[in-house]
Structures are given as C-alpha cells and as structure tokens.
Write a structure and sequence with these properties.
The chain is α/β, with parallel strands linked by helices. The protein has three domains: about 1-40; about 75-280, P-loop containing nucleotide triphosphate hydrolases (Rossmann fold); about 280-455, 2-Layer Sandwich (Ribosomal Protein S5, domain 2), CATH 3.30.230.10. Helix content is about 25%, strand content about 25%. It has twelve helices and 23 strands. The protein has helices at about 40, 75-85, 105-115, 130-140, 155-160, 190-210, 230-235, 280-285, 330-345, 370-385, 410-420, 450-455; strands at about 5-10, 15, 35, 70, 85-90, 90-95, 120-125, 150, 170-175, 210-215, 235-240, 250-255, 265-270, 275, 295-300, 305-315, 325-330, 355-360, 390-395, 395, 405, 425, 440-445. The strands form five sheets. Strands 8-7-9-10-6-11-12-13-14 form a nine-stranded mixed beta sheet. A seven-stranded mixed beta sheet has the order 17-18-16-15-19-22-23. It has a three-stranded antiparallel beta sheet with strand order 2-1-3. Strand 7, helix 4 (about 130-140) and strand 8 (about 150) form a beta-alpha-beta unit. Helix 10 packs parallel to helix 12 (about 450-455). Mean pLDDT is about 85; it is low at about 40-45 and about 465-490. One of its GO terms (biological process) is recombinational repair. Keywords: ATP-binding, DNA damage, DNA repair, DNA-binding, Hydrolase, Metal-binding, Nucleotide-binding, Stress response, Zinc, Zinc-finger. Belongs to the RecA family. RadA subfamily. One of its GO terms (molecular function) is damaged DNA binding.
Length: about 500
C-alpha cells in the first residue's frame, strides 16, 4: 500500500515544499501554499499499472506524405483567424481572461453556431447551473440552438457520458478549476486537481478526436491561474483581453501548435453578445479628438492585419521629487528608452515632467514600430503643437537616434490610405519598399532630431508656462522657432 505523501503546493505556480512557509520562493507570492496529498500525483493509479511488457511501434522517417489536420470552422471569422482556421480534431484549447470579460458569452455563441450547422456541441459548466446558461442563451437570441448542456464537475462522469453515442465535435469545459478527479485526493481548484483533470480530458480528446476548450481563471497579474504545466499540455492558449468599461474585446493567441501566434480577433460587446469587428482601425479611431496636442496615429501590424490606433501622450510639470512614468497598452521599457534618446540626442529635457502614455481603445501594442509615433506624441504634448490630423507614423528608434525601417510598409500605407489619411511619416530607408501607387505623401525621416525640430517649430507656449519665476516670459519658446530646451549646449 502506498504511503500518503503530504506536501505544501503553491496554488499560483505549482511549486511543492516539504513544510509550510509564508512566501513561495518560486513565484514570490505570499500565502499561496496549501497542504495537499500528492500520493496520486507521484504514484500511478492501480487501474493503470500493468506488469506486461511495452508494445512495439513503428518508427517512420522524416520524408513522406503527411495530411493536414482537418479543421472545423466555428462560424465566427475572428475566432477562426486566431485559431488558425478552425478547431483541429483532437485538439485542446485553453482560454483565459479576466472575470466578466465575456469568455462564457464567446463560447456560448461558438457552440450555438456549430450546433446550428449540424454538429454535436456540448457545453459543460462547473460554475453555473443549466438554468443560468439558458438565461444567457435567451439573452443572446440562441435559445433555439441544439446545444447539449450539463452542470457537472466530476471528470470521470463527464468522460463516461461523452463516450456514449456520437463523438462530440466541440466540448466546452467551464472551467477547469472546478473539475475534480478520483485519481488524486485534493480539493477542486488545487494545483494537483487541475493538473490531473486536464490530463484526463486531454487523453479523452486525443482518443476520441473531439475538440475541447478549457476555460481557465486568471490571477491578478493577468496570467492563467494554476500550474504552468497545463499550458504546455494543451495545444493552444488563447487570451481574452479588454477593459470592462469599454465595449470591445481582443482575442489573442499566446500559444498555437496549429496556427500563428501573432493574430488577433476583435469583438465588440453589445446587448446581443459579441459582435465581430472586421475593420478594427475604424473602431479604434472612431472617437479621435482632432487637433489636440499629444496625439499621433500609429500604423501597426497585428499578425497579417494592419491596424491603425491612436497614441495619446501627456507631458506635465511634476510636483514630486521623482517624475512619474505611466504607460497603458505599451511596454514601459520602450518608453524609457524613447525618453532617453530624446534627451541624449535631441536635447528634450523631460526630467522635470510627468509623462503619461496611453494606447486608445485598450489595444496592447507589442511591436517596436510604435517608437516613432510615441516620440512624436510626447514632443507634441511638451511644446503644445498639434500634429497633422491626416498623418500616420511608424518606425523603430535606435539608441543612436536613427529611425530604422520596419516590416510590411506597403500594408501599413494601404490601410492608412483606405481610411482617408493623406500623409505618412516613415523611415527614410523604407521609401524604396513603397511603390508609386501608395496614394500618400511620404515624409521620410532619417533621424529623430529632424522630426523633433519640425514639431517644435510649430509649438506654442502653454498657458501655465508664461511669466513664472522659474521660467520668465522672455525664455518661452517662440512660434516658428526651436525652443531653447531643444538646443544642445555648444551650438
């Protein structure tokens, strides 16, 4: 008989310890260690043990004909874009997102569309009763869809029920933290139970060929809760992002064995559920404040899709000993780098100013091509000079102050021209990649200094900078002249 093994397992990262301690040394979280019986996690169950020898299997070479994995389109173009064209047979997807972001709404719509198309779709909820799921379906106008519902948390009962009859094409488990299995002796939601339950469901998916979607909770940092080994076990990890106060949501692939990981799907939350947004640029630019200093339009690329988004910057004099640097939707390290380049090579002194940068619409930008747009917005806010409303910016800034080219220049310009923009500020070395049919006036910049001087020449002094004791009126920047703060010493 196996001896019970008790250990303390971190409920955030899955690290195990022999004794309790307040802080997890692996992830740094406090009060996350819980006592668990890990006998089932370390010892193979009796039903699986066998004294027979292993069976022989055939080894194949790298060369040969391989068929593409058949896919099942979900009926939602934005969801299929992120998954790579649809659900692959026998695949397991993990979907994570903040509470109330719309995960259950999205999956209810996906299962309803598949059921209406004649496929067997099963929705199993461990958090809600069947009546609650029906109320959501009625609100979305999907009550007539032949989706099979259940409220169950036992993995053995779920597998036995789904094994009867025709194999389901899509199974939704909402959520994996509520599932439990008899093979381990731990409470539902613990690291051991989440790992064992996920393994049992993955084994059923590979054996039956059904596609399974697991819904996962997230931590306060936005990471999917539970052991990271679950993310390695599944075939795809999807992150559902967005602000609860805003109407649109972004579905992003963090991991995908059957498709790209740089595609995004954009949805708008309405009273009838999530509506697909085929042109995200119009949504992100729908409420632009034209003519305001500190705003610049960035022409970005998300996967294969060009997306135009507005960058908003605010530079204000600080009253603190250490100025604040706040960023929403962009990498804070890149903002620090851009500020350092502006001060070192362009003479822009921002050590006495608070700097705030925001990506309008809640989109999170990950590519370095937004450096030029961020720098233009910062300088525009500092000198109170509105940027041209019909211009887009893109380009990577190096530590030497040079503007480096970025990929897919033609796609960015084509999207900007389609939305009515008339000019583009881009790296000088990227002009050769653009054909004569761009339809835009191209303003190329080789270095950041020339762009800063051009914006500063149009600047006007702000009202709170006139006639103070620290900054006399005669030292204020004049119109159509480069302010003194931008002129390096010795010039």
């Amino acid at each position: 008989m196996a001896k019970n093994t008790l250990s303390f397992v971190c409920q955030n990262c899955g690290a195990a310890y022999n004794r309790w301690q307040g802080k997890c040394d692996s992830c740094g979280e406090w009060n996350t260690l819980a006592e668990e019986d890990t006998t089932g996690a370390t010892t193979m169950p009796v039903s699986i043990r066998s004294k027979r020898k292993g069976r022989l299997f055939t080894l194949e070479s790298l060369t040969g004909k391989s068929n593409d994995a058949p896919r099942l389109p979900s009926g939602m173009a934005e969801l299929d874009r992120v998954t790579g064209g649809g659900f692959v047979r026998g695949s397991v997807l993990l979907v994570g997102g903040d509470p109330g972001i719309g995960k259950s709404t999205l999956l209810t719509q996906a299962t309803s569309l598949l059921a209406r198309a004649g496929h067997r779709a099963v929705y199993i909820s461990g958090e809600e009763a069947v009546a609650q799921v029906r109320l959501r379906a009625e609100r979305l106008g999907l009550a007539d869809a032949p989706v099979q519902l259940a409220s169950e948390t036992s993995v053995e009962d779920i597998v036995s029920t789904l094994s009867e009859g025709a194999v389901p094409r899509l199974i939704v488990i909402d959520s994996i933290q509520t599932m439990w299995t008899d093979t381990v002796e731990s409470a539902p939601g613990t690291v051991t139970q989440v790992r064992a339950s996920a393994q049992a469901l993955i084994r059923f998916a590979k054996k039956s060929g059904a596609a399974i979607i697991l819904v996962g909770h997230v931590t306060k940092d936005g990471q999917i809760a539970g052991p990271r080994v679950v993310e390695h076990m599944v075939d795809a990890v999807l992150s559902f992002e967005g602000e609860g106060s805003q109407q649109f949501r972004i579905l992003r692939a963090v991991k995908n064995r059957f498709g790209p990981t740089d595609e995004i799907g954009v949805f708008e939350m309405t009273g009838l559920g999530l509506r697909e947004v085929s042109n995200p640029s119009e949504l992100f630019l729908s409420e632009r404040d034209l003519g305001s200093p500190g705003t610049a339009v960035f022409a970005g690329i998300e996967g294969t899709r060009p997306v135009l988004v507005e960058l908003q910057a605010l530079v204000a004099q600080t009253s603190l000993g250490t100025p604040r640097r706040a960023v929403v939707g962009w990498d804070p390290s890149r903002l620090s780098m851009v500020l350092a380049v502006l001060e070192a090579h362009c003479g822009v002194k921002l050590s006495g100013y608070d700097v705030y940068l925001n990506v309008a619409g809640g989109l999170r930008i990950q590519e370095p091509a937004a450096d030029l747009a961020a720098a233009a917005a910062l300088v525009s806010s500092l000198v109170n000079a509105p940027l041209p409303t019909d211009a887009v910016y893109f380009g990577e800034i190096s530590l030497s102050g040079a503007v480096r080219p970025v990929a897919q220049t033609s796609a960015r310009l084509k999207e900007a021209a389609k939305l009515g923009f008339g000019r583009a500020v881009l790296p000088e070395s990227a002009r050769g990649e653009v054909g004569g049919d761009a339809g835009l006036v191209l303003n190329s910049v080789g270095g950041l200094t020339s762009l800063v001087a051009d914006i500063a020449a149009r600047g006007t002094p702000k009202g709170n900078r006139q006639g103070t004791a620290d900054e006399p009126r005669e030292d204020a920047p004049e119109k159509n002249a480069t302010p003194a703060r931008f002129r390096r010493e010795g010039r």
